[in-house]
Amino acid sequence: MPELPEVETICKGLAPHLIGRTITRAIIREYRLRWPILQKLPKILLQQSIIGISRRGKYILIQMAQGTLMIHLGMSGRVRIIQPTLALQAHDHVDIILDNQTALRFTDPRRFGSIHWIDSHTDPYEHRLLINLGPEPLTTALSGDYLWQRAQKRKTAIKAFIMDSHIVVGVGNIYANEALFLAQIKPTRAAGDVSRTEFNTLVKMIRKVLLTAIKAGGTTLKDFVSHEGMPGYFQQKLKVYGRGGEACVVCKQPLIEIRLGQRSTVYCGRCQR
DNA sequence: AGTATCTCCTGCGTGC
DNA sequence: TGCACGCAGGAGATAC
């Protein structure tokens, strides 16, 4: 379940392996992802040189000479740098083979991920999947005031609100639960009822959980090529997510677990108001 | 426009 | 042991 910290870590980890390389071959074994992969993508990628790698929200952007390859990992997607001879396993859908006997392998059992090609005539940020995204949580584009403003008159639960990528990107279910706990805000409250002060705290806590996870992910970065270990966010101590019924780390009350917008939601009935 | 619900998919845990 | 089932979840699509 790659969340934004993992995507950030992946981008940093991939960069030295990809930048400056040229693609010698692309093999697509399964075109049916969340959206079908462009049929002519293997041909397009041929002989492309890789210039840079970045991300927007959880979309990975691999900039090439003639366009940008945009990858979303969905729920279960993974990318690794491998030897192209490495035995294929189930759900190894795409190999992008480079000019130095390595390859970028995309694996995604649930196929919630996606791969798009954006021609260099189009600004990647103008792509329909990116153009309406909210601000990045780790930049000054996100502020308590911004969230407060957008929340006015909104009846949606605050948790669903901060998980909406059109409001702010990169806050998945795990971090929404954690950030709301740290900010002492009950997940079910209407977004419009959350005060400006509370939004300021919430933004701080969103940044805190994301940065903690990025830092943790960084420790596995050096082994990026071969490492199969836990993504960063599992290394940080989760205070509420996955702990329904267990004791609140602050007040020892049993944590409450509910479903909110079809998502598992855990909070402390005493600490969060 | 805002809101809630549905949807894609496979792997895994649970209960019988 | 094996089956059916429910759940996990990012985020766009859909129906009000």
Notable traits:
alpha+beta; four-stranded antiparallel sheet; 273 residues; DNA-binding
Any overview of this molecule?
The protein has 273 residues and is α+β, with helices and mostly antiparallel strands. Helix content is 26%, strand content 21%. The chain has seven helices and ten strands. The strands form three sheets. Strands 1-6-7-5 form a four-stranded antiparallel sheet. The chain has a four-stranded antiparallel sheet with strand order 2-3-4-8, covered by helices on one side. Strands 9-10 form a two-stranded antiparallel ribbon. A hairpin with a 4-residue loop joins β6 and β7 (103-107). α1 crosses α6 and α3 (144-151) packs across α6. The longest helix is centred in the last third of the chain and has 23 residues, at 196-218. Residues 221-232 have low confidence and may be disordered. The chain binds a DNA duplex (16 and 16 nucleotides) through loops.
Tally of individual helices: 7
SS elements, strand count: 10
In terms of quaternary structure, the protein is single chain
Termini distance?
29 Å
Question: Fraction of residues in helices?
Answer: 25-40%
The largest beta-sheet arranges its strands as: 1-6-7-5
Radius of gyration, in angstroms, nearest whole number: 20 Å
Q: What is the succession of H and E elements?
A: HEHEEEEEEEHHHHHEE
Strand content is 15-25%
- Give the structural class: alpha+beta
Summarize the structure.
With 273 residues, the chain is of the alpha+beta class. The protein is 26% helix and 21% strand. It contains seven helices and ten strands.
